[in-house]
Amino acid sequence: MTKDFPEIADDVSNDAAALREAIPDQMAGFAQLGAATYKDGALSPKHKELIALAIGITVRCDGCVSYHVRSAYEKGATREEVAEAIGVAVHMGGGPSMVYGGEALRAYDAFAKKG
What we know:
It is a single chain. The protein is mostly helical. The chain has one domain: AhpD-like, CATH 1.20.1290. Helix 3 packs antiparallel against helix 4, helix 3 packs across helix 5 and helix 4 packs across helix 5. The chain is built from 5 helices and no strands.
């Protein structure tokens, strides 16, 4: 079955919006953590997204892969950078990460095609 990665990323965003209504205090804390995590520092926001993508691959999280590929793409990550992040994930996570790595590369291509 082919996955619609842009749709999965949109679902993650929509689910987060629903959670902000259901558990506003916790989600406000999560948003604050995200803002602190992804701000520019010794690592650029793009590189932090690539790290998050690699982690999402190793834990086999479709929503994480889709969301962080989209975010990395929007922050200017190239297909080659995404591929290298996938390589790190495969090294750390073995065969299952290789499967999700292939999906992450297809996700990048889907976001690039969508523009």
